[in-house]
Write a structure and sequence with these properties.
Radius of gyration of chain A: 43 Å
Distance between the termini of chain B: 75 Å
Largest sheet of chain A: 14 strands, antiparallel, barrel
Shape of chain A: rod-shaped
Shape of chain B: globular
Structural class of chain B: mainly beta
Oligomer: heterodimer
Helix content of chain A: 10-25%
Strand order of the largest sheet of chain B: 3-17-16-19-20-4-5-11-10
Largest sheet of chain B: 9 strands, mixed
Structural class of chain A: mainly beta
Number of helices of chain A: 11
Number of strands of chain B: 20
Order of helices and strands of chain B: EHEEHEEEEEEEEEEEEEEEHEE
Strand content of chain B: over 45%
Largest interface: A-B, 67 and 47 residues
Helix content of chain B: under 10%
Strand order of the largest sheet of chain A: 1-2-3-7-8-9-10-11-12-13-14-15-16-18
Number of strands of chain A: 37
């Protein structure tokens, strides 16, 4: 490969405002940070929430003694989630020319007094401003404005009072604005492309004196395009080109989350390599340090001297990278003051699956309390999970498992709730604020949150689902235990002398009769869904409806270890006459059925939780005032008619719900 | 979730970057088209009364050798004139030996030096005319001394040896001094042909001497026939041409004076000592070309 130096008349379009960009060479398709102001203003959309950027460089070629040249300092801010703006002060973006004096001056004593220059021409890009807007489809557009100042220092001479020649300087300045437009978009998850029009518009604030018209800064319009690909693990490949047939190719390797290694090639008109770049980036949040070395292979041809004709014919796209730029080591530090992570997921909608009934609040640890519609708004697949939190009723948010969501995919994630004991204190229908969060895995923060209303029923409210009745059954309630102990202790002598085979049956009968002495059947005090009293409440109130009595009797039986099942009957032609009663495991084996009744239609033979067939006794608890025998007969009759005669079980309008012993 | 995080910001890193960024890049030098710089040395000419030139009695028309301060001079010149009313060539030989140790003073200031009578002076066998120098002191004409001149009938040739012979008088001994005359200078072209504001003068000449001197003079306000030098330029004669920058021309008082005399000279000189004369003697041979330029607008 032969390297050929390109002559002065090329128009260069690269920028040296970002060490990352310098090392890569190709930066316009994904330019981020405040360096975007020069490369592609649309890249400002990648800014952190509040960024400060400082840049310095040292040149090995044409530099005065010292360590570094202060290049620029900038600040940028993101606002309203999809807009960003930045401003940069760049005293180091400077290109100076000096026309040496063509004569020497001797004072009257014969001492030589040489002027430093005849004319000095300085071009400065002092300030830059930029703004970008990110559309919902991932397209980012931006505009950049650059403020240039041209300053001419013209050395003049005059005689002083002693007739000695004295020099003085006349200054002339001109100011102008140059406007860039840019856009960045993602073709797919791995591809991004950028387009920049440099110096599209130029406005002069103040023109130079006509005699210096030749020194007017001439910024050429330029179209730059770029592509970037990140489909290879840990690698990014980028390519930039422009309308002057200059191309740059760069690669970036991220072996670890804190380190990036880069290289780039600057090619001129496909004929020669003008420069190569190397660099690395060190990321230690919130600071990022980028270092780059730009090397011109034929730097011996890059002299710091040109002729006047060449100077007049030269044109620039930017005063950063020119035919006079020498090898350079650049350092850029970026500090993210107000740290934020790019949101990858968004909650589109939250639906609460009904009201929360205090009595059955435990069920929401396993049964979804709501569902969130979550969308992946990033360009990569994510692992998303949802958290739900009601500050007044929960100790910590309840998280779901992680769900894989493809780019732009929307999924429904059911979420749950683990309430603490504070929910039991809810005495009446109340509305609480609940918050639903969505987080992407490995992120410390959430990506989005959604406020929703959580309707919490009082502790006695019941949703009408027989399955939920079990939450009202409290066999371990001290009052229930005391009741049963007291009831059985009275009949201790009788029970001690009774046949052990029917002991549970006898106990159940005794408890019911004692229960019957103290309670009355009454209707619900309110009819929202239904109102269920806890057994302790029924005992203290001395009454309740069928649900209350069933729940209470079931609690009493279960407190002495007798298995109970609820019988839920919903007549298909009369659903408003739905009814619940219970059956209990008498513990009597079928062959001993005669010991409790000679009529087999009065009882049900079914397997208990141990798998053993036993006799189960149906009891209509609303017949509580008539005593056990009457309640038994009524319950048996109902069961026989529904289950045996009408095949209600097979037809699905009679359910037997076993109550687990661990309630 | 956004967090404001200032505790981990390494402020010292920012300070380091800013601290070491206090240098500036050297500017790019713009040279002339041929990458060849002109060599022009410019010197002002003092106009104090102590200046050798004013009281010397030497006609500044044809002025030479304003550098250095010699109290004795022996000069042979060939002068070409291109003036509005005069275009000719003359030759001139002159010598003067000032007495530095006995100046004429008034009000504490030196206004003239007397000059010695050193007998006779011959140049290549031709005797220079001894002339008295007069001045007025306290209302009375006083004799300042003598100067020696030879004009018109004297010919100047380039590359010729001129031999000075001094007979001596009093303390000053007789002596002989020879000098070779330099290449003749002839200005071929001046463009533009006037002094214009902001416009440099492009000048071409014919001369083989290594250096060319240019003295720019203004008219004397008192005597229209005499000229007061303002600027002396010494130019390296590498290509027989020079561009006098407009910045040098801007020094000329063009608002007060409408024309200036440009005297181009090719010189050969050296200094020597004369027995009995306390100071050095400048021995010079020069070819001059005088051109008058008007101030344009």
């Amino acid at each position: 490969m032969v390297f050929v130096f390109t002559d002065y008349h090329n128009t260069y379009a690269q920028h040296l405002s970002s060490a990352r960009g310098i090392a890569l060479g190709a930066f316009s398709s994904f330019a981020g940070s405040i360096g975007s102001l020069d490369w592609n203003p649309a890249g400002l959309s990648s800014l952190g929430n509040l960024e400060i950027n400082v840049s310095n460089f040292t040149s090995t070629g044409n530099q005065s003694s010292g360590i570094g040249v202060f290049n620029s300092i900038g600040i940028g801010k993101k606002f309203l989630d999809n807009q960003a703006a930045a401003v940069q002060y760049s005293p180091g973006k400077k290109l100076d020319f000096v026309l040496s004096s063509s004569f020497s001056i001797f004072d009257t004593a014969g001492n030589k007094v040489t002027a430093k220059f005849d004319q000095k021409i300085s071009y400065n890009q002092n300030y830059s401003f930029g703004y970008s807007y990110l559309f919902s489809n991932g397209l980012s557009v931006g505009i950049g404005a650059h403020y240039f100042e041209t300053k001419i220092s013209d050395m003049r001479y005059r005689f002083d009072e002693t007739n000695s020649i004295q020099s003085y300087t006349e200054e002339y300045t001109a100011q102008m604005w140059s406007i860039d437009l840019g856009l960045i978009t993602s073709i797919s998850e791995y591809w991004s492309q950028g387009l920049t029009i440099k110096n599209l518009f130029q406005f002069s604030e103040h023109e130079l004196n006509q005699k210096f018209e030749n020194y007017r800064l001439n910024l050429e319009k330029l179209l730059r395009f770029g592509f970037s690909y990140t489909g290879i693990d840990d690698f990014r490949i980028a390519l930039d080109g422009d309308s002057k047939y200059n191309f740059q190719f760069g690669t970036e390797w991220t072996p670890d989350s804190w380190l990036q290694l880069r290289s780039g090639i600057y090619n001129s008109k496909w004929k020669s390599i003008d420069a190569v770049g190397f660099g690395l980036g060190i990321i230690y949040n919130p600071v990022r340090i980028d270092i780059a070395y730009l090397k011109f292979p034929h730097s011996e041809n890059r002299t710091n001297t040109i002729t006047g004709d060449v100077f007049k014919s030269n044109s620039f796209v930017d005063i950063d990278y020119t035919a006079f730029t020498a090898d350079r080591l650049s350092l850029t530090a970026t500090i993210n003051l107000w740290q934020t992570r790019e949101s990858l997921a968004r909650i589109e909608y939250v639906e609460m699956l009904g009201e929360v009934f205090t009595a059955s609040h435990q069920v929401y640890a396993f049964r979804p309390i709501g569902k969130a519609r979550v969308k992946n708004i990033s360009s990569k697949s994510i692992q998303a999970k949802v958290s739900f939190f009601v500050e007044e009723l929960m100790t910590v948010p309840t998280d779901t498992k992680s769900y894989t969501v493809s780019p732009n995919e929307v999924i429904e994630i059911p979420f749950f709730a683990v309430f603490n004991e504070l929910i039991s204190a809810v005495k009446k229908f109340s509305i609480f604020d609940g918050t639903v969060f969505v987080s992407v895995e490995t992120a410390a923060d959430y990506d989005d949150k959604y406020q929703t209303r959580v309707l919490v029923r009082s502790k006695n409210d019941w949703d009408g689902d027989p399955m939920s009745l079990r939450y009202f059954i409290t066999p371990n309630d001290p009052e229930i235990i005391k009741f049963t102990r007291d009831a059985l202790s009275i009949q201790k002598l009788f029970l001690d002398s009774s046949n052990i085979a029917i002991l549970d049956f006898l106990k159940s009968k005794i408890i019911f009769n004692v229960f019957a002495e103290k309670l009355l059947y009454v209707r619900d005090p309110m009819t929202s869904k239904d109102f269920v009293q806890y057994p302790s409440e029924t005992l203290s109130l001395h009454g309740g409806d069928c649900d209350d009595l069933t729940v209470s009797y079931a609690s009493l039986l279960m407190s002495i270890g007798i298995s109970v099942a609820l019988v839920d009957v919903v007549p298909p032609d009369q659903p408003d006459k739905a009814h619940i009663y219970l059956i209990f495991d008498s513990g009597v084996t079928p062959e001993n059925g005669d010991m409790i009744s000679s009529n087999p239609k009065k009882y049900i033979i079914r397997k208990n939780e141990k798998g053993k067939e036993t006799i189960w006794i149906p009891v209509e608890t609303t017949f509580v005032s008539k005593g056990f025998d009457e309640a038994w007969v009524e319950g048996a009759q109902q069961y026989y008619e529904n289950a045996e005669l009408h095949s209600a079980i097979e037809r699905g309008w009679l359910r037997i719900i076993d109550l687990p012993s661990g309630i | 979730m956004k967090t404001l995080n200032l505790t981990r910001i390494p402020i010292f890193l920012l300070l380091i970057i800013l601290w070491h960024g206090c240098q500036e890049l050297e500017p790019v030098s713009i040279t002339n088209e041929n990458n060849d710089t002109q060599f022009i040395e410019m010197q002002t000419i003092g106009n104090t009364i102590d200046s050798l030139l004013a009281p010397s009695g030497v006609d500044s028309f044809g002025l030479v050798g304003s550098t250095g301060k010699y109290f004795a001079r022996m000069i042979i010149t060939g002068i070409r004139n291109d003036l509005p009313l005069r275009s000719d060539s003359v030759s001139q030989a002159e010598a003067i030996f000032l007495d530095r140790l006995n100046p004429f003073q008034a009000n504490g200031r030196t206004f003239a030096y007397p000059s010695f009578d050193i007998g006779s002076i011959l140049l290549n066998g031709d005797t220079l005319i001894k002339q008295q120098r007069q001045t007025r002191i306290s209302g009375k004409d006083s004799l300042l001394g003598y100067r020696y001149q030879l004009r018109k009938n004297y010919s100047y040739e380039s590359g010729k040896i001129y031999r000075w012979q001094i007979t001596g008088n009093g303390n000053i001994d007789s002596t002989e001094i020879s000098i070779s005359s330099p290449s003749e200078i002839r200005v071929l072209q001046i463009y533009p042909q006037a002094i214009l504001p902001g416009v440099p003068l492009n000048i071409k000449w014919q001369c083989t001497n290594k250096f060319v001197n240019i003295v720019v003079s203004r008219e004397s306000g008192l005597q229209q026939k005499s000229w007061v030098p303002i600027i002396h330029l010494k130019v390296r004669n590498s290509k027989g041409e020079v561009i006098i920058p407009e910045k040098i021309l801007d020094l000329l008082p063009t608002k007060q004076y409408r024309r200036f005399l440009f005297t181009f000279s090719s010189e050969s000189k050296f200094s020597t000592n004369l027995n009995g004369y306390p100071d050095s003697v400048l021995v010079e041979s020069a070819s001059l070309h005088n051109i008058l330029l008007n101030v344009g607008s």
